[in-house]
């Protein structure tokens, strides 16, 4: 007889207030999560709360930025025991730095909906918490996963693995995350969709999807790598929405390869990911599975990751909010 092991139990809700409803997680969901979006507009404060089960390995992250006359704050927290995602963050205390040393950092802030991210008319905001840096996030996809007018955010944030520029692109998508630690350092106004970085001479395989649609052998193409994205990447894992095996191939910066951001933007859990140096070297994953490779190559080229975070969800919520407020 095989004993049945009960899954993790988490609080689960979607709305403007905390919840007491719970759900039992799927086998591949190893964490409980709480995502909160708070909007401060003059004397009015409103919040949106999302709780539930999630795939494992996610760190805690936060972003704040200006959208018109509003301050938008997004944060996500994770934990790994039953019903551990109880309660919500005290966002007002976080933004007003109550009981904390003040952060002297001033950052440019914008969203694409403001039409100010690509010129010199940026507004500035003061970061509230000591651990925050200035951030500049670009993200767009061929399938318009994000609203077409929302592909750039600048502001303050506390993002994991953001010491060097983090970049990934293939034929389907382009993602670039930059953090810096001096006032007004996030002053880049380049429109990476209209004017992408220059080719760097590296060629990699490119695909996104599963073994029958998007990343089948017939779907795999070649892409010329650009800018800091000088390595080839391939990854496979369990898709957070479908629970099915999914894969991705493309070009990545070395810093991206050492981070969990493939999981962030591609929504993959229990991920196997590797980066390699050399044209078309990202050819180990076929039909979502790892094919046998020489031991010597594996020891030299493989960089495996088993972590995941949801900045993609935070960014998407920001995009949706900015579109509504514009």
UniProtKB/TrEMBL annotation:
- Where in this chain does the record put each UPAR/Ly6 domain? 8-95, 105-199, 202-293
GO cellular component assignments = extracellular region; plasma membrane; side of membrane
Per UniProt, what is the membrane topology?
Answer: Lipid-anchor; GPI-anchor
Its localization reads:
Cell membrane; Secreted
Superkingdom is Eukaryota
Task: Kindly state which keywords UniProt assigns to this record, in alphabetical order.
Answer: Cell membrane, Disulfide bond, Glycoprotein, GPI-anchor, Lipoprotein, Membrane, Secreted, Signal
What is the designated name of this protein? UPAR/Ly6 domain-containing protein
């Amino acid at each position: 007889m095989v004993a049945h092991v009960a899954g993790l139990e988490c609080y689960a809700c979607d709305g403007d207030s905390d919840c007491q409803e719970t759900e039992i997680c799927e086998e591949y969901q190893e964490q409980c999560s709480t995502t909160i979006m708070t909007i401060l507009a003059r004397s009015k404060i409103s919040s949106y709360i999302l709780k539930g089960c999630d795939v494992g390995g996610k760190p805690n992250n936060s972003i704040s930025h200006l959208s018109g006359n509003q301050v938008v704050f997004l944060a996500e927290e994770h934990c790994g025991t039953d019903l551990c995602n109880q309660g919500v963050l005290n966002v007002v205390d976080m933004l007003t730095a109550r009981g904390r040393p003040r952060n002297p950092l001033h950052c440019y802030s914008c969203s694409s909906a403001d039409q100010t991210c690509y010129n010199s008319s940026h507004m500035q905001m003061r970061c509230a918490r000591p651990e925050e840096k200035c951030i500049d996030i670009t993200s767009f996809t061929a399938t318009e996963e994000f609203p077409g007018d929302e592909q750039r955010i600048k502001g303050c944030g506390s993002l994991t693995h953001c010491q060097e520029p983090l970049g990934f692109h293939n034929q389907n998508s382009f993602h670039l995350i930059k953090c810096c630690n001096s006032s007004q350092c996030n002053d880049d106004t380049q429109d990476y969709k209209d004017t992408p970085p220059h080719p760097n001479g590296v060629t990699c395989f490119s695909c996104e999807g599963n073994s029958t649609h998007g990343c089948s052998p017939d779907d795999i193409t070649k892409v010329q790598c650009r800018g800091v994205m000088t390595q080839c990447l391939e990854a496979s894992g369990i898709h957070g929405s479908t629970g099915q095996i999914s894969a991705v191939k493309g070009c990545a910066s070395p810093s991206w390869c050492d981070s969990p951001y493939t999981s962030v933007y591609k929504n993959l859990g229990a991920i196997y990911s590797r980066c390699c140096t050399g044209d078309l070297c990202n050819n180990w994953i076929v039909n979502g599975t790892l094919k046998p490779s020489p031991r010597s190559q594996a020891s030299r080229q493989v960089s495996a990751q088993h972590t995941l975070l949801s900045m993609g969800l935070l960014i998407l919520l920001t995009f949706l909010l900015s579109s509504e407020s514009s």
